[in-house]
Fold this protein.
Amino acid sequence: MIDIRQGYENHLPRRVITGRGASDRLAEICQGRGWKRVFLVSDRGVESAGLLTRVAAPLADAGILAGQFVDVSPEPPLADVALLAEQIRSAAVDVVIGLGGGSVMDATKVAALVALRGGGPADYVGIGKAGGRGVPTILVPTTAGTGSEATFVAILTDTAAGTKVGVVDPSLLADIAIVDPALTDGLPPAVTAAAGMDALVHAIEAFIARVATPIARGLALEAARQIGPALERVCRDPGDQEARDRMAIGSHLAGMAFANSSCCAVHALALPLGGRFHIPHGVITGCFAGALMRHNAPACTADFAALGTALEWGALEPRAFADRLDATARDIGLRAALDRVVVPTADIAPMARDAANNRRLIDPNPVAVTAADAERIYRNVLNVAG
């Protein structure tokens, strides 16, 4: 954990509204802020689930819906975000609402920035390059996993390089985050499992990261307390509303936690693998969590015991904690999903180099991870052929 005597900063969304039905207040919230022209961003999955109409209709009825874009793709490419930014700019709007999972919210954050500040999304890849805030944003998650509504990180795809890239700047923080668990009620089991496990990994990595602040560690532990009793329950019974509520707030708290700490090596290994093979992000992070926690065990005995207690798993020894992560990934179907992907052996070394070179995520990891370590872990976890 960071030495508090050296000081630290924390960054949180400007306003957070939670509760079932909270998203029904969007028109009222916008009007209360004097926002008269609203642009709505979403994707086809949200549209087919009926959630787009649920949100868009009251905005249209209030006469404030000035445009919408519903073609955000998973792991949005830089070029798609540039197109979205141009549409936002052309519509001359007061606020942009991102309604969806992590891809939608990440695309919204960067597009709103580009629309106001100019250039293209690639100009902002890296840390601290925003130069100021973009068009105001309201972020409304429809999954319980990414926590993107609470963070100043956006992950996009550089299709030319075949990898994922990050835009990281406090200026990306939402003006308003709305966490409405009711929007997650109809999630398919596979999405529920992958998103939920990703939220759990966010909480774990935020807690153990070398740069974690006291606030981040407190948020991470509370996220674990919410997620622990709920994740496997909601995967078994998608209609369990109490579990849905716990996952929604747990995901949000985990997002706040890692935004004020860091994700670590699990995410460093996930990015090149996801960029090349388009595996759902939560499938990767869920299946790699156990292996990386075994690697981190020498530095994390007390932290794993604290996390295990918060999760209601008990004050587990490091190996038992890692084993429980593996078992959870298997029991909720993530392991089977990853095993269906065959990764050519020729891709392992380049991915390992990319992962080890991601200093933003590797440096905060409690134990150093070299390219050789990353290659070994890839080979142990993945279905490798050739």
User: Anything to note?
Assistant: The two ends are 41 Å apart (CA to CA). Residues 189-385 form a domain with the Dehydroquinate synthase-like, alpha domain fold (CATH 1.20.1090.10). The chain has two domains: 4-184, 189-385.
